[in-house]
């Protein structure tokens, strides 16, 4: 049902239903429209980047699938992103990795500079999109033995320290150019496949390297540093230097932001339960909203219980100004623009559901110990007409309603992506 009059009729009936629970729908939609999700550039090209070494993805990252049409250069990636943004209601951010610079010839990671990202800064301004950033401590010969900032070799450590330092300068320039802080997220893959004999020293080296990178103070209006933990990776099954405890302690002691990736914990451990704990001790949080299937597989975000609980926690805790929502998935088995549309729209739907909850009523019932009514109301919520509100939101935002966005990606695939000559499978492991 994508007829405009029907969408409006359904919306009005839905508003009445929400009002009967004391929920102000317009207020929820206004709040939703102010939330900017950081869309990750790397879904568009399978985390390959533009350094000219296609197929070198490593350090525990793996992209599977051979779907044709991968973006091969910055212009293609930017075009793909513009199509994706046109399918998603609201104004959103772009999360760039350092290996997506525009390099005229070989530039090693320790030598990257603002000029290599000027094209992205200009494009972002033209699109009214704010940028976030990430140093890339992977897919490089100096990371090939699994260690970077925690490496035992001081020369290799210094190389990666210089990379981290260069990335902070670039992130600050982005933040200054857009007059909005650029979040710079540090994920460091260092770890071991088999049982370590020494867990202590690499952690001491990682902390010392990070301290050196973070020596220079940048205005919080320009850039905010985040550190991302991980339990295990492919090739680092037994030991990851930057574990949760490591970074939790690091972030608290250095007043840094923490990044929680939904795929970086034991499969039965949910980041939704960590948000209110962590925010008691760190100033702000970055989330990498992802979907692990058995392991940190970075599947496209779907409308799971955990996605809904993450968004409920953010809204119920009134953390919208302290939690930055980023996405982190990479699936090369489906159309990559569609992957962005599906994942981002789902994150927004879950946020909308959380904003439409009668939170105060639920929390009051809990305070009174009326767990029966709390459970009853939570379950009744699941039958509320969320879709009618979502369709109206999409329509007023000028983006496709319902599944209509799929046809747009099909047309784009037929007219643009399918014409790209991609060697099937070359970029994937
Ligand atoms: C490419 C990203 O930085 C990467 O996915 C990182 O955030 C991560 O989650 C690694 O497992
Ligand atoms: Mn991540």
From TrEMBL:
Annotated TM spans: none
SUPFAM superfamilies in UniProt: Xylose isomerase-like
Cofactor annotation: Mn(2+)
Reaction catalysis annotation: L-rhamnopyranose = L-rhamnulose
One biological process term in Gene Ontology: rhamnose catabolic process
Function: Catalyzes the interconversion of L-rhamnose and L-rhamnulose.
Pfam families: RhaA
EC number(s) on file: 5.3.1.14
A molecular function (GO) term: L-rhamnose isomerase activity
Entry note: cofactor: Binds 1 Mn(2+) ion per subunit.
Gene name tied to this protein: rhaA_1
Pathway: Carbohydrate degradation; L-rhamnose degradation; glycerone phosphate from L-rhamnose: step 1/3
Cellular location(s): Cytoplasm
Top-rank taxon: Bacteria
Keyword field: Cytoplasm, Isomerase, Manganese, Metal-binding, Rhamnose metabolism
Protein family according to the UniProt entry: Belongs to the rhamnose isomerase family.
Protein name, as recorded: L-rhamnose isomerase
